[in-house]
Here is the input.
Amino acid sequence: MLATRFAPSPTGRLHKGHAFSALTAYRAAKAAGGRFVLRIEDIDPTRCKPEFEDGISEDLTWLGLDWETPVRRQSDHLADYAAAVETLRQRGLVYRCFRTRKEILDGIGHAPHGAAEAVRPGPHTPDEEAELLATGKPFAWRLSLDAARETLGGTIWDSLSFFEEGTGPDGERGRIKARPETAGDVVLSRKDAGAAYHLAAVHDDALQGINHIIRGVDLFEATHIQRLIQTLFDWPEPVYHHHRLLTGPDGRRYAKRDGSVTLKALREGGLTAQALKAEIGF
Here is the structure.
């Protein structure tokens, strides 16, 4: 049975781009007689707010969507992600990283945009780690690509791939070779939250039986490292469908950080759900 999900973070009110993504996943599930899951990805304690979570339900209900209950709220399940990280630790696949983002950037010099997400700082020496632990300095757990490759072996590593049903940013489609090295040694457990996006999302997709991941093309690159994490845990491989991003009159994609007009504001301004859906292609 086809199972899709919409997994927003409650860091602000939803906008037209969110509506497009949620409706795309919902339509696919309903057309196939499948499941549509709403998941709240609220592992960032500084930016996620209960009022925004309430707003998500309000906006999706206004759009005419329904979903399975109970809704999984990631902040209620931090122990699950900690257990997953511990499993990787016991297998020697993660290492403690006490470095700040600035320290990492300073260490690699003048890097191009986005390079901070592809760094591989590597573990501290045993003496450094012991000293840092003794001081109580906070640390993150990073996935070691070197250890992952050694564990899987070259054959499995080189055969990592995913199936793209939609279209990638450069027109990619069909079976695509996964390149986890482009993400670097990603953080799997953050210093401030105890969990990080890649691990929590992939863990929950497997737990909830999500086999058809429909999301914006801005998350296409994340698929490379997520396929590696799935393989390390022997979790099922879903089909991916990355869709286009809606843009506003200025040509920029809708985004919370840019203050894009919210569904709440549109609703209060008199726009009907039917009119909005027609405007964005539904």
